[in-house]
Amino acid sequence: MLKMYFRITGLILLLAMGLTACGLLSEPAAPVTTLEAIPLGNTATPAQAQPATQAPNPTDVPAATDVAVATDVPAATDIPAATDAPAAASDLTIYTIDGSNSQVSFQLDEVLRNQPNTVIGTTSDVAGEVGVNMNDLSTAQVGVIQINARSLLTDNNFRNRAIQNDILNTSAYELITFTPTAINGLPASASVGQTLNFTIDGDLTIRDVTQPVTFQVTATAASPTQITGSATATINRSDFNLTIPSVPNVANVTEEVQLTINFVANSG
Description:
Lipocalin, 13-stranded antiparallel sheet
């Protein structure tokens, strides 16, 4: 009887040590970064809605022999700064994502205790800016989208610890970022109440891995001062080196992860 007691105690200790090692018993790091939208004119990459408005390729620049006279070249002070492209700030209405009314989520499937299960994690800790001129959508811009990974929560505390401590390593990498590089599929203009479907290409960074990702976007100008919508993309865990730790009763976690941003962005 005593031997059985020690064996059971030993197994419990080994299990506890294993769970601690894979982060299931360790409290994850708390969020410390207060997210604020990165201004479009600073570090955000302008995203062109229409290919025709993109800057010419360097190979398309006329050779020096094609330039008539040196006096035809505008003075350096007359050349617009790179941060002014593709439209002057005064031409755009800036909409800032409202975290209190927006939500970022991930979704994937697993087998939990021999039953199919869908895992959904969410956070409202998201920030970003959008610049829009409704009369000329070719000048539309989307700034860097920031998400605080430390605030992502599912319906299970053990899973939350595994995600934050092991899978995302949020103690070292607090933020997930999406840096847009191009907007495709926008019409020339839009009006209040109109719903648009388009795509946004960009670079998604999770931990220390950056991969190109395309979001499918549906957006509506709900009013002159508000844009609402959702953006969805599907990524592969292996592309970002996101490995699921081996834990009891969990199996067959899907490779594909769906990312969704439901947003409300306000101007003024």
